[in-house]
From TrEMBL:
<feature type="domain" description="ABC transporter">
    <location>
        <begin position="6"/>
        <end position="237"/>
    </location>
</feature>
<comment type="similarity">
    <text>Belongs to the ABC transporter superfamily.</text>
</comment>
<dbReference type="InterPro" id="IPR003439">
    <property type="entry name" value="ABC_transporter-like_ATP-bd"/>
</dbReference>
<keyword id="KW-0067">ATP-binding</keyword>
<dbReference type="InterPro" id="IPR027417">
    <property type="entry name" value="P-loop_NTPase"/>
</dbReference>
<keyword id="KW-0813">Transport</keyword>
<dbReference type="InterPro" id="IPR003593">
    <property type="entry name" value="AAA+_ATPase"/>
</dbReference>
<dbReference type="Pfam" id="PF00005">
    <property type="entry name" value="ABC_tran"/>
</dbReference>
<protein>
    <submittedName>
        <fullName>Unannotated protein</fullName>
    </submittedName>
</protein>
<keyword id="KW-0547">Nucleotide-binding</keyword>
<dbReference type="InterPro" id="IPR017871">
    <property type="entry name" value="ABC_transporter-like_CS"/>
</dbReference>
<dbReference type="GO" id="GO:0016887">
    <property type="term" value="F:ATP hydrolysis activity"/>
</dbReference>
<dbReference type="GO" id="GO:0005524">
    <property type="term" value="F:ATP binding"/>
</dbReference>
Amino acid sequence: MVELAIKTSQLTKRFGDQAAVDGIDLSVPKGSVFGFLGPNGSGKTTTIRMLLGLAEATEGTIELLGEEVPKRIEQILPKVGALVEGPAFYPFMSGRNNLLRIDAADRFADQKTTEARVESALNRVGLANAAKKKVHAYSLGMKQRLGLANALLKPRELLILDEPTNGLDPQGTREVRNLIRSLADEGITVFVSSHLLSEIEMLCSHVAVMSAGKIVAQGKIEDLRNEEPTRLILATDEADAAIDVLKSEGLGKSRIRGLQIITEVENDFDVAKLAAVLVSKNIPIREIRLEKPSLEEKFVKLTGEGFEVVR
Ligand SMILES: Nc1ncnc2c1ncn2[C@@H]1O[C@H](COP(=O)(O)OP(=O)(O)OP(=O)(O)O)[C@@H](O)[C@H]1O
Ligand SMILES: [Mg+2]
């Protein structure tokens, strides 16, 4: 049995008669970097707020690190670092002083090490140079970094991050991604939401895809990708002869796209062997390769909506 850092069962949140989160079963393995992917309004933040005990579930159950939420939330929270939409900082105080204040108010924190921990958290998120600046003069990206620093004030077993790269420039996005990777390497489970598939693909081992409050796919990213059939792409000027060869090799129906013949094949299809057969029959090959449909195609199919892709 895989140990789970987060487990929800039929978790539901209704606002009036709208179900913002609609019966979701999340299974987040310990040690994973788990992407929580979904378009705007699909219920990511609402879910995260329930996980952290910030909002009450209408129905369903939650376990964080094996403990019941909200019943045991006080015992669990010291082990969980969180970044949720719009963290509240005092604008008239510097970034450093905000963190010092938060740590001072944390009765689980060791006050003897406060300053060292604040400095190290500021360093990790690249805010050391702006630490003395007042927060009202911070850019959105700098506030986001301060939110991350806040999540990192203490050693954690689990990090729950709601769109941590929101408002960051490409450089900042890369830095946050690297930071998350290095935290994961230390063995911390990271649950991170995003509406950007490309980001989740680059960062995560697992994903749950949300659409209108429901999970429409969940699991290892690799497994989800492998569920999609592999395609053989063959470009030739002798399409008819080539299709005869494909049939004689036991392949199914083909589609034609310009000069390309496109056929579904097994994942372990031997493309070199097919190339040799085609050559032996004097069929000229302009292009021959295998292609996996991108995860984006799969998710568009599942959610019926496009995900923004950053390039
Ligand atoms: N306090 C609230 N009262 C009423 N409706 C709400 C409330 N909070 C969220 N909702 C609704 O619940 C749905 C899910 O919102 P949520 O913020 O969880 O989405 P999200 O996936 O985090 O979106 P985004 O990518 O824009 O951050 C939306 O339709 C939203 O309008
Ligand atoms: Mg949100």
